[in-house]
Design a protein that fits this description.
By secondary structure, the protein is an alpha/beta fold. Helix content is 42%, strand content 21%. The chain contains 5 helices and 5 strands, in the order E-H-E-E-H-H-E-H-E-H. It has a 5-stranded parallel beta sheet with strand order 2-1-3-4-5, sandwiched between helices. The radius of gyration is 13 Å and the shape is globular. The protein starts with a strand and ends with a helix.
Length: 126
């Protein structure tokens, strides 16, 4: 499963590196990249601008049909704004949030993330 993500501060990038999975970082200036394989999208909490950039990528060509879920990254001290970008994107595109993590995640987050992705892959093969 491909992991597609946006990283501003580097926290999301550090999380993705811990996953040791195939990944694609979206360039905020040129988000329209075509993918032809199943993927999950990781979006940090920052602004509506990031949600718009993520939506441009997902709705480009046939990218949406390969999207299996959204993951939100953020800081719980944001309160109700925790993972708000992922929540907004999920609502806009009617795609489930399958996981969330704080800051750059920890080893437990990495294992839980991989289990969630594995569930998606197993479900697809049935």
């Amino acid at each position: 499963m491909l992991v597609v993500y946006i990283s501003l501060t580097g926290n999301t990038r550090r999380f993705v590196k811990k996953l040791d999975m195939k990944s694609l970082e979206i360039d905020q200036m040129q988000p329209k990249v075509e993918v032809n394989e199943d993927y999950v999208f990781i979006l940090p909490t920052y602004s509506d601008m990031l949600t718009d950039i993520a939506e441009q990528f997902i709705t480009y060509k046939d990218n949406k049909k390969y999207l299996k879920g959204i993951i939100g990254g953020g800081e719980k001290n944001f309160g109700t704004k925790y993972i708000f970008s992922a929540k907004d994107l999920s609502k806009r595109l009617n795609v489930p949030i399958i996981f969330d993590f704080e800051k750059s995640g920890n080893n437990v987050d990495v294992e839980k993330f991989k289990k969630e992705v594995h569930k998606i892959e197993v479900t697809k093969t049935k």
